Amino acid sequence: MGWRNGILRVCFCAVAVFLPGAALGWTGTADSYGFSVDRTSRNDVVSFWQAVYLKSEGYQNRIAWTGGSFTSLAAGAEGTISSTFIADVERRTNYFRAMCGVPASVRLNTAATVNILPSDLYTPAASTTKSAASQRSALMILRTTMAGSGEGVSHTPAPSALGWTTAAWNANNKGGLAYTFYGPGAIDAYFREDVTNGLSAWNFDVGHRRWLLNLQSTNFATGDIPGTRPELNGNVALPSSNCLYCVPKASELDTAVAPRFVPYPAAGFFPAPLNTPYWSLSYPGANFSAATVSMTSSGGAVTTTVISRLNGYGDNSIVWEVPPAVASRAITADTTYNITVSGIGGSGVPTSYSYSVTLINPNAEPGAPSLTGSTTPTVSGSTYSFTRTAASDAMEVGFFRPTTTPWVEGAEDSPTPQVVNSTDSNYTFRASVTNYFKTGAKAFRLAIPTSYDPVVQGIPQQSFELTREVIPGASGKLNFSYKRFAMSPSTSLYVETSPDGLVWTIRDTIVGVSGVGAEDSAFLNKTNIALPVSSEPIRIRFRYAYSGAYNAQGFPTGTFYTQPVYPTSGIFIDDITVTNCQTLEKKGGIETSPSATSVSFTSATSGEALVRGQVWWLRLRSKFGGTWYPYGPALVATISERYIPSGSTAPPVAGATYLFSPDGEVSSYDLEVAKISSAAWNEGAETSPTPLVIDGTGAYSLISTFYAAAGTRAFRLALDNTSDILDTVEIDRTVIPSATSNLTFKTRRGKMDSSNTIHAEVSIDGGVSWSSVFSLPGTGIIFVNDGVFTTRTVSLAPYVGKDTRIRFAFKKLLANPTLAASNADSGVWIDDVSVSAGTWIETRGQTSLAASASSFRLDSTTAGASLVAGGSYRLRLRNVVSGVPSAWGGVLTVVPTNTPALTGFSAWETYDYPMLAGVAFNADSDGDGSPNGVEFAFSLNPLTRQVSSDQPVLDLAAGKLRITRPLPSVRSGITYGAEWADNFPSWSTAGVTVTTTGGQAVASVPIGTGKRFIRWKITKP
């Protein structure tokens, strides 16, 4: 059986001692003291939590208590504790002090001696150290409480108390006392003051918190007894105890620190796990007797009840109780409370104090970090940007691939289980017990390791989590097998999921069976546990816990079985699978440098070659205090082809400029512009239309009138002589099949040896190599095989989207017989060749671009012919290195138009200079003094600096000053104007005329009496 948190009473004691107000701030910095934290920075608070607060966790493994016996009262029976454990307590104490804005350089268990006051009833030797007295006090607390007297938790224990000594009395009188808590756990309890059972006035007065936050304190001491599990102590559970010596001697006070308000929870961002129902505000020498507290949140006023204004515990304080919802220690979103304490009295004390507390989950990062960049990067990769998280130690970008590959999670040695084991070490998690595994030789086991654990103060929960990140589909399910043994109905297995590993939702529950003998005789299958549909990955956890009732004293009332009593107790789990889900697999990652704000996603950094069509998830996370936080939302990227041109998909028929991302060390680029037609075609041998074929025959005519499927002619293939082994006819069209495309043609065999074969072949490398997709052998040479034409159909689906050439080939091996083409009825006739549901290249132009190029012009030159309005053109690029071209990159399809969507300056930027798209009309992109609007007006290049071509003329007869410059075309959407000035910056348009005819722009202004300046003024309404 076991014990539960609350039945083992915690007792907080405090002594009223006058302490002058003020203390100095420590400047030293070490592993366990000298801390400071910026509470206005959420991330600094988070980092402080991870690096300092959590560093003291696991203290139970570092105490190294030497007492050994819980029965002896002899001198030395209290034992000693390790310096590492003392540092854990010191670190936790100074963590709280730093969070509350008081000097965080208190030292513990130094050689400091006890505080002896004239009023003390009992006096130890003056040389007694605080640490020795505290350790003896911890023993007295434990022994008296075990005996049922409770004398050891008294502020003034009687000499009759078990383990009493004058040193123990002194520590009890000057310290905080805890039963069932020890080490850093006791420090948490002292600050929260919220023990479930056994509350006393000491809790309501928050005396221990006030002593621990005393501004002047510099020296404390801790005494600790760790308690034991029943298995280690004759089946008797022993709780832990602590004495924290905190009332200082006057000589230890540091009076250099100015008085200040000290709230708890502290102002600024504050970890919700340290929240409490009892909020407080302290100030040295303050009089809170008439003070009032008002508290609000986003939801309005918060009800508060003042429960203490008692002085004498450290600095004077006011304490108020908040509603349970406000006191919550588990929150999902940052929550801010605004507090004002008014009516404060005292000499030199402010009469009111207002502040805000924002409770946070320190294990969750708000506004999870994310990446920005292309969702369709090419196979050569892309660059992604991010904003560094303030106060983070580091940032990491992870590269993941979703997969539907099935997996089975078992406990076998191979493959290594992908799980996080959070079970106790006193039993085997991956158990190999005969008849307790579904397949293989092992299963995962969860069991109750002990009826009482001193740290959790009860029955510890057991769990394991899959490290696989699962993306459930619309009908995603979880499946596994299990077998129960000595698992009572008061214990349960909870199957849980979480989006972030912080908040878990129960998806299914398996309850134990009634009594020994009712266990499962074989593994049972648990199937179709519904998983939540999610666009982000989820985690899966199996958690085993006592689920029965407790009595008023906190004892569990249900039956349960512990592993030490029943070695095969608990539940065995095997063969975990999911269905209708994807699994996210991490392939690579980059931990960025402190100054980095971008990363490169390439085959080298991703951990796997980037291939067209792959889907990748790019996710960013932050590290705080040495701990990585969950990944933020994914940027889902689908790998596309390289060198995808960018620009208008509906350019003017006159042409447009397109951009592409250059590749670095290349010799040049090839640009291909292909006009794509979807018009149906049928390749026959008639005179009209002229057959589009390439003749690969010999001494006979490819065109034959001997047989024809339609019309009067067909293509004939045969062999010239006995040494001829291959004759062909190639359809001179490049077709681009779709998924439903078929090659259709008709054949009629003449006289053919059975070793001769007619093939239909395709090539996807421009005719360099050919693959047969259809073949038909001859059956003899003495008679005509086919009396009619037969329609043949071949699927081209394997070649979808590829430039495909088609040919027909008549073949034989050299040693085989040949019926020469001179026999008029030898060979095979082919007619009516077509490809359905596909497109084909009508015209093609190819242009070489310089290695330095990052753009090209689509026009009649690069297309090989004038652009046709409504025509479909395919643009693609490839690089050339040392004369060797690479594969073609991605495709941009454009359809030229006679009526482009844009006109004027916007059209000029978009169609002619897309690299300037969105740049202001008056910007000067090339820095030559002519704004882009002027360069547009006079058909100049805005990317190249140019000297003005204006020609000034002084016409005295007309009394005019003129400037003239070439005007290749009059632009629409702007106004050509000019203005003059005699004194800068006063410009005028009075008397100005502008003409734009005859290929020139002429601006005339009146001649002045002195110097006069003239300039063009181009405006865009």
Our Rg estimate from Cα atoms comes to: 44 Å
Count of runs of 4 or more consecutive helical residues: 11
**Biggest beta-sheet profile:** 13 strands, antiparallel
Helicity range? under 10%
How many beta-strand segments? 52
Structural class: mainly beta
Which residues sit in consecutive blocks of at least 5 with pLDDT less than 50? 1-28
Q: What would you call the shape?
A: flat
**Approximate strand percentage:** 25-35%
What value does the average pLDDT take? 91
Distance between the termini: 87 Å
Task: Give the topology, please.
Blueprint: H1 42-53, H2 83-99, E1 107-108, H3 130-146, H4 166-174, E2 175-179, H5 183-192, H6 201-204, H7 207-212, E3 219-225, E4 241-245, E5 262-264, E6 268-271, E7 278-282, E8 292-297, E9 300-301, E10 305-308, E11 317-321, E12 335-342, E13 353-360, E14 382-385, E15 394-403, E16 419-422, E17 430-431, E18 443-446, E19 462-485, E20 491-498, E21 505-511, E22 524-530, E23 538-546, E24 570-591, E25 598-601, H8 603-606, E26 615-624, E27 627-628, E28 635-638, E29 656-659, E30 668-677, E31 693-696, E32 703-704, E33 714-717, E34 726-736, E35 742-749, E36 757-763, E37 771-777, E38 790-795, E39 804-811, E40 828-835, E41 839-850, E42 855-858, H9 860-863, E43 872-881, E44 884-885, E45 892-894, H10 904-912, H11 932-937, E46 951-955, E47 960-966, E48 975-983, E49 986-988, E50 993-995, E51 1000-1006, E52 1013-1019
Helix pairs in contact: 1-2, 2-5, 3-4
